[in-house]
Amino acid sequence: MSTVMFVDDNVVNRQLLTRVLQLDGHDVITAADGREALDELGRHHVDVVVLDLMMPVMDGFAFLRALRADRAREQVPVVVYSAMSDEHSKSRAAALGAEAFVVKSRVGVEELLNLVRTHTRKA
To answer: Alpha-carbon torsion 58, 63, 69, 72, what sign?
Structure first.
């Protein structure tokens, strides 16, 4: 069984996608911002991170920078799941090491699950 970390400051999103991921057979760890996510990564093995970009305390870009700078966790795949849809945000996330980028309003549950499945198989 794989472990997915879902990082989003929206509690409803965390609850809904946690349930969807669990029904798909994943263990799920959640965090409300990048700082909390880094703390959780220190306590848990994670196979893939699903990451929002716009969050308080530490946004998704800062989290990606910190994750890729951590030699022990730099290879953890990250799927960005964001309301941001501009090319600059997509390019910036890719440059920071995100493996995939999906826009919340444009992605279906099955597509997101397929991305998670693909990247957990690589972990």
So the answer is: positive
